Predict the structure of Endonuclease/exonuclease/phosphatase domain-containing protein.
Amino acid sequence: MGIRRGTSPAENYDSHSILCHCLSPMSHASHQRLSAPLIIARVFFVLLCLALAGLMVFHQQVPDLLGLGLVVDNLAPWAGLGIPVLLVIALVVRGRASFIGLLVPVVVWSVLFGSSFIPHAKYAPQASLEVATQNVHESAGLQAARELAASGAQVITLQEIGQGQEEQISQELSQTHPYRYMVSTVGVWSAYPLKNAQPLDLGLGWNRALRVDVSTEHGDVRLYAVHAASARPTGHHERDAMLASLANYVQADDSAKIIAAGDFNATSTDRHFAPVLDALDEAAYSDWGLAMTWPRSPFPVLGIDHMMLRGVASADLKRLPIGDSDHYALQATIDLDNAQ
């Protein structure tokens, strides 16, 4: 092939190379052809994404065999940790379908749990009540009562109070919280008068909860102080019965303002906590993330302590490292003039 006049040998060579490359069996199109293992890897990856999303949406339908349902329910928000792992895999297998598939669990987690990670706006209400709760783990009652009183809590409810600590706590709070009512290991100390006190066994067979009216200058507030039975994969029937009984009590309660506080031994994603959520609203956390309260060390994993409301609103909810318990305390500023 001759060289055209006015065309340099280099230009002629480049044109010849491009033509040969296009006609070659090793063309650009062949480089784009996907191998069977890569196709299988991408399909499997998309299925993984859909499985993670499905687990988050339908975790309460997972059979509770050998406690699996309990574990999956209460760890549901932590399923989001699978998303960064899937992102790494997506970067390996590549492909548009892989990244579209990854969007599914991202969107699902954002819809189900994302809003709970954003701080709830706090404000100073005109009529308020400061309520605090903590499971003091038997030995930390006195220190917890002292610190919660110092934090400004006007009503303090403690669970798992150790033997002999009721009098110690009452003496410590005698000047600031002279009104008290205690049932078994659950107690309430209040700066306001208490009335209509009633022990509740909630189906347990012995009293592990109570109900009392707190008489504030803005009207009475019905308070349920609760310590639900323990929940383990090997058995949680007593806890389930207590939560269902509490929901029934609240649904039948005609009080205008209700607060239920304590250690429920269930997170808000637990299927057996659902009846309580149907009867009451959960106070929104005023900091980033979920209000994980247990265990304190090495880091909290589960939010099993709650402040539940009806007929009132939460102006602020904070988590406090009070005392020497293995639970964080919760303290809420309750807006008595507004309902959620």
